[in-house]
């Protein structure tokens, strides 16, 4: 466990949270069949501490954005509880029970930066007007002078100088990187506890990406803010998580399949799916250059409406055995603890019946030779 995780100050806590959506159907289907339900997030427990960095990675449609939005209280869970400093977020919103922290305070404390900052900024409003609006709403008592002083100080802090000049521009007069900085300032104005950065650097040029990630980390440190960073790129996730001494969480079909410090998850991945992601990122796995085939049996991702039984990865896993088709592996008791390294795979348990089970049809024979004992 990392030295950083000695403090028990948990900001957000998700307890056995699931988010299911009803999929749109045709008229005939909707009249005669039960609605299809997409299991976007399934039974996830996780804690976010103060000044924490969690990078969530996975293929498109794996549920990472839905999980991120659930962590910051934007997405209501279908099952389970989401708490902010011990207060149930959705009870606060609905006014259920004794509410210790008003929902408005929770919303202020949890902010989001989107992938496309241009779309998030009103094209007809100057930067200053866009930045003043949230302060006027949440801190109406603040004077115009103080409001502007705070905005200019933050614009300066993110490198937009002179701030008065940038404040009076319209979004189309800013570059993509500058728009993202304005979005970051808008999130920081509320002194948030947690910021969800949803693919926040994906749309930027490669040269700007590192610069923006460094800025995020500097601000995270300076403002004592936690970041949940969503990325489909493992190298970006590693960069942020390593520099911040944070964690990487790997998602597959709505489930968190591996989580832990980046050097452990990437240096010694325990879940076969994490190995696939690492293989697909050449700079993380030099041996991938020599491997002709990816360490996966099928490139088709199953339908999230009807995920495979047992371990959801069994239809693609090169290590799958019969038991994997019926028994769902669990992430482990430490899954929500920052700093713990856990994987939801039967192979992590040297005593699991997996080791006596037959290889699945289609799994290459050479795997049988390598599967005599657990990876770790
Ligand atoms: S539980 Fe079985 S199918 Fe799932 S990842 Fe582990 S070995 Fe593969």
UniProtKB/TrEMBL annotation:
What GO annotations for molecular function exist for this entry? ATP binding; ATP hydrolysis activity
**What start-end ranges are recorded for coiled-coil regions in this protein?**
none
Q: Which UniProt keywords apply?
A: ATP-binding, Nucleotide-binding, Transport
Give start and end of each ABC transporter domain.
22-278
One annotated GO biological process: peptide transport
What CDD domains does the entry give?
ABC_NikE_OppD_transporters
Q: What is this protein called?
A: Peptide/nickel transport system ATP-binding protein
State the organism of origin: Halogranum amylolyticum
């Amino acid at each position: 466990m990392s030295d950083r995780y000695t403090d028990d100050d948990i900001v957000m806590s998700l307890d056995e949270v699931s988010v299911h959506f009803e999929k749109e159907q045709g008229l005939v289907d909707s009249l005669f069949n039960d609605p299809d339900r997409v299991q976007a997030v399934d039974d996830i427990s996780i804690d976010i501490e103060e000044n924490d960095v969690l990078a969530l990675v996975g293929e498109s449609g794996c549920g990472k954005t839905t999980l991120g939005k659930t962590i910051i209280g934007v997405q209501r869970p279908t099952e389970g509880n989401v708490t902010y400093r011990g207060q149930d977020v959705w009870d606060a919103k609905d006014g259920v029970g004794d509410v210790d922290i008003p929902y408005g305070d929770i919303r202020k404390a949890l902010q989001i930066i989107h992938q496309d900052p241009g779309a998030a900024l009103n094209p007809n409003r100057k930067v200053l007007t866009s930045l003043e609006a949230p302060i006027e709403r949440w801190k109406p008592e603040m004077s115009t002078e103080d409001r502007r002083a705070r905005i200019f100080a933050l614009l300066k802090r993110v490198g937009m100088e002179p701030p008065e000049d940038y404040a009076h521009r319209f979004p189309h007069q800013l570059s993509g990187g500058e728009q993202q900085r304005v979005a970051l300032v808008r999130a920081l104005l509320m002194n948030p506890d947690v910021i969800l950065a949803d693919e926040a650097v994906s749309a930027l040029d490669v040269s700007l990406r590192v610069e923006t990630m460094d800025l995020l980390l500097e601000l995270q440190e300076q403002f004592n803010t936690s970041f949940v960073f969503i990325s489909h790129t493992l190298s970006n996730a590693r960069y942020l998580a390593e520099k911040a001494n944070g964690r990487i969480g790997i998602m597959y079909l709505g489930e968190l399949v591996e989580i832990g410090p980046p050097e452990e998850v990437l240096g010694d991945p325990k879940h076969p799916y994490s190995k696939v992601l690492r293989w697909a990122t050449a700079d993380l796995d030099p041996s991938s250059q020599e491997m002709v085939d990816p360490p996966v049996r099928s490139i088709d991702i199953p339908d999230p409406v009807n995920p495979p039984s047992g371990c959801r990865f069994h239809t693609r896993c090169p290590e799958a055995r019969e038991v994997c088709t019926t028994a769902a592996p669990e992430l482990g008791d430490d899954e929500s603890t920052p700093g713990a390294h856990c994987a939801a795979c039967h192979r992590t348990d040297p005593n699991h019946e997996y080791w006596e089970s037959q290889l699945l049809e289609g799994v290459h024979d050479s795997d049988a030779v390598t599967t005599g004992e657990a990876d770790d």
